[in-house]
Design brief:
The chain has 13 helices and 9 strands. It is an alpha/beta fold and 326 residues long. It folds into 2 domains: 13-134 and 312-324, Aspartate/ornithine carbamoyltransferase (Rossmann fold); 157-225 and 227-263 and 268-301, Rossmann fold, CATH 3.40.50.1370. The strands form 2 sheets. Strands 7-6-5-8-9 form a 5-stranded parallel sheet. It has a 4-stranded parallel sheet with strand order 2-1-3-4, sandwiched between helices. Helix 4 links the parallel strand 3 and strand 4. It is globular and about 55 Å long. The protein starts with 17 loop residues before the first helix and ends with a helix. Bound molecules: phosphoric acid mono(formamide)ester and norvaline (NVA).
Length: 326
C-alpha cells in the first residue's frame, strides 16, 4: 500500500511506522528494477538538492548525487569548508537560507541536533546522511539487502557485533525493533547502547513482536544468526580512541570462528563500509589489529557488503522521491 511521506523529514526513523519503512523498501526495490531495465526516472525534475557534509563520505555522497541525477534533480555539494555554517552562521540562519533556495537538504555531520535544527527551520525535507547518533539511510540499504538475500525481515535473527553504541548500532536497533526482528547487540558492556534508547526500542518492538537482546556473550549473541553485521571500532571523530577500542573489541572481530558459532552455514555478513579487513590502508598500517572483520569473511561468499553499498543509491532515491517527488 502506498504511503504519503511528502514533505516529511528522514532523521532517525523513530517517527516512521513499520508500514512506512516497508513502503520505502518496496519503492527502493522498484527503483532498482527500473534502473536495471534502463527506465529513466523523472520524479525529481527541476528540484535542487543541497548536500551538506561536515564529515567525509564515499557512499552517501555518491548515492545522493547519482540518485538526484537519475531522477532529474540538481545536487549541490557543500563541504564543511565551503559554507559559513558553524563558523560565521548558525544552524537556524543557514536552514532559513538554504530552505529558500533548495527543495531538499541532506546533512552529514557530528551533532544530531544540527540535522534536527535544519529540519526545524528549513521548511523543506531534510534527510540525515549520518550523525554521531544515527545513520538511518544506511539501515534502509541494509534491510533492502536482507530482503533480497533472505526474502523477509520479520523473524530474521540479526546480530550486530562490535561498538554497540555507535550510530549504526543505534539505527539498526530502531529499524530492527520496528520490523519485527530478533535483534542482538553483541558488545563489551562498556560499549552497550544508551539505556534510554534501548527502552524506546523495546516499546517499538512490541508492535511487531521484535526481540531485542544486548549481551557481551559472543556465543549466545551470534547463535542462530541469519545476519552478522559489524562496523568500524572507532567512528569518524573518535580516531584518538583507536588503541583503546582495539583492546576492548579484539575478541569481537567477525571471523571464521565467530561464523562457526552461529551454527548457520548460510549466515550472511553485512557491513555499512568503509571496513578494515586487511592492513592495506593508511590507518590499518598504523594499527595492524584494527580489523573488525577478517579478510577471509569479508571476501567470502557470505559477504553482501557491496550489494549493500549499491543499495544505498536505490534507498536514498526512494527517500527523496517519497518525500519530495511529484
Ligand atoms: N556507509 C557509509 O555511509 O559510507 P560513507 O561514509 O562512504 O558515506
Ligand atoms: N560508525 C561509522 C559509520 C560509517 C558509515 C562512522 O560513523 O564512522
Amino acid at each position: 500500500m502506498p504511503f504519503n511521506l511528502k514533505g516529511r523529514h528522514f532523521l532517525s526513523m523513530k517517527d516512521n511506522t513499520p508500514e512506512e519503512i516497508d513502503f520505502l523498501l518496496q519503492l527502493s526495490i522498484k527503483l532498482k528494477q527500473d534502473k536495471y531495465a534502463g527506465l529513466r526516472g523523472n520524479n525529481l525534475a527541476g528540484k535542487n538538492i543541497a548536500l551538506i557534509f561536515e564529515k567525509p563520505s564515499t557512499r552517501t555522497r555518491c548515492a545522493f548525487v547519482v540518485a538526484c541525477v537519475d531522477e532529474g534533480a540538481h545536487p549541490e555539494y557543500l563541504g564543511k569548508d565551503d559554507i559559513q555554517l558553524g563558523k560565521k552562521e548558525t544552524v537556524k540562519d543557514t536552514a532559513r537560507v538554504l530552505g529558500r533556495m533548495f527543495d531538499g537538504i541532506q546533512f552529514r555531520g557530528f551533532k544530531h541536533e544540527t540535522v534536527e535544527g535544519l529540519a526545524q527551520w528549513a521548511g523543506v525535507p531534510v534527510w540525515n546522511g549520518l550523525t554521531d547518533l544515527y545513520h538511518p539511510t544506511q539501515v534502509l540499504a541494509d534491510f533492502m539487502t536482507v530482503l533480497e538475500v533472505k526474502g523477509r525481515l520479520k523473524g530474521i535473527t540479526f546480530a550486530y557485533v562490535g561498538d554497540g553504541r555507535n550510530n549504526m548500532a543505534n539505527s539498526l536497533m530502531i529499524g530492527a525493533a520496528k520490523m519485527g526482528m530478533d535483534f542482538r547487540i553483541v558488545a563489551p558492556a562498556s560499549l552497550f547502547p544508551a539505556k534510554e534508547l534501548v527502552g524506546e526500542c523495546r516499546e517499538f518492538a512490541k508492535e511487531r513482536d521484535a526481540k531485542i537482546t544486548i549481551t557481551d556473550d559472543i556465543g549466545a549473541g551470534v547463535k542462530g544468526a541469519d545476519i552478522i553485521y559489524t562496523d568500524v571500532w572507532a567512528s569518524m571523530g573518535e580516531e584518538e580512541q583507536i588503541p583503546e577500542r582495539i583492546k576492548l573489541l579484539k575478541p569481537y572481530q567477525v571471523n571464521r570462528s565467530m561464523f562457526d558459532k552461529t551454527g548457520n552455514s548460510e549466515c550472511t555478513f553485512l557491513h555499512c563500509l568503509p571496513a578494515f579487513h586487511n592492513t592495506e590502508t593508511k590507518l590499518a598500517k598504523q594499527f595492524p589489529d584494527i580489523c573488525e572483520v577478517s579478510d577471509e569473511i569479508f571476501e567470502s561468499r557470505h559477504s553482501q557488503a557491496f550489494v549493500e553499498a549499491e543499495n544505498r543509491v536505490h534507498t536514498i532515491k526512494a527517500v527523496m522521491v517519497a518525500t519530495l517527488g511529484r
